[in-house]
Amino acid sequence: MTDSRVRGIARSFPSFAPQITKGGRWFVAVKTGVGPDSHIGDFESEAEANNWITTKSKYWPGGN
Length: 64
What we know:
By secondary structure, the chain is of the alpha+beta class. The protein contains 2 helices and 3 strands; from the N terminus they run αβββα.
């Protein structure tokens, strides 16, 4: 992709979303648009994962 085409794409990364594991625990999936997703944390509830997103994602490079 040329630089001019890249500049025309709306930036939506990184994105953060709570996801549940097969074991019933929660983590935050971080999509950067480059490479595999990152998995952050081991949370007991979706609310705890969402709290991480609200309070900590802003410190992730390029975060909210």
